[in-house]
Write a structure and sequence with these properties.
The protein is mainly α. The chain is 77% helix and 0% strand.
Length: 226
């Protein structure tokens, strides 16, 4: 499954320990609320659907009987994609709270309640929502994210870099620059490798999940095989 790497990474691209059990509990709640925004189920679903669609033709072409269907009936591709997207959505809905909880535990152990609350307030603001909307669409526009992208040509990715920030208003860019200087934002960036480790563990499919998408593909394409 797709995890926090794309959703949280896109936020970072556009740019202490709790003192008591009560503060830790408050920080953990705030951290989870933050992750629900920057690693929303919608952005994760969109990213995983995009990855699946990019490899769909190659995947189906591995089966001769599927390849014949692809040439004769383009509706089969749409049916397969819709079926797989439904499975992906169900898997994310089932598992995403585990990702948020584990990510929040890390953030709340390394950041103060004030730092988390400041970031949460920003991403709940109109400017923060604008930045996230652009970031979700243009994660791979940052050069550091262009290398090795399976769904994007690296050079094309690099040419798009200036366009991402250009989509933000001057007010939004200035607000983003201000929040990027805050200790909480800087600290969040330093925690990214550990968040990606959490994502990597979370994204490993179970045996049941590994079987669900092939089964959905088989059921969706079977009516088109004669």
């Amino acid at each position: 499954m797709f995890g926090i790497g794309l959703a949280l990474g896109c936020m970072l691209a556009l740019t202490g320990l709790a003192s008591s059990s009560e503060e830790r509990a408050a920080s953990n709640t705030t951290a989870e609320q933050l992750l629900e925004i920057v690693a929303s189920r919608e952005s994760i679903r969109a990213g995983l659907n995009e990855q699946f669609d990019a490899g769909l033709i190659s995947l189906l072409s591995q089966r001769p009987e599927y390849e014949n269907v692809l040439r004769s009936n383009p509706n089969a591709i749409r049916s397969v994609a819709a079926a797989a997207h439904a499975v992906i959505g169900n898997q994310i809905d089932r598992d995403i709270h585990e990702l948020w909880r584990e990510g929040a535990a890390l953030l709340s152990s390394e950041m103060t309640e004030g730092e988390l609350a400041q970031l949460l307030a920003y991403y709940r603001s109109p400017t923060g929502r604008n930045v996230m909307a652009v970031a979700r669409d243009t994660y791979d526009d940052d050069p550091s994210h262009c290398t090795g992208l399976s769904w994007s040509d690296e050079q094309s990715c690099r040419r798009r870099v200036p366009n991402a920030m250009a989509r933000l208003s001057l007010e939004d860019r200035e607000a983003l620059n201000r929040v990027a200087q805050q200790p909480g934002f800087v600290k969040l960036a330093t925690l990214m490798p550990r968040l990606l480790e959490i994502e990597a563990r979370w994204s490993q499919p179970s045996e049941q999940e590994s079987a669900e998408i092939p089964a959905a593909i088989e059921n969706a394409i079977r009516p088109y095989i004669h």
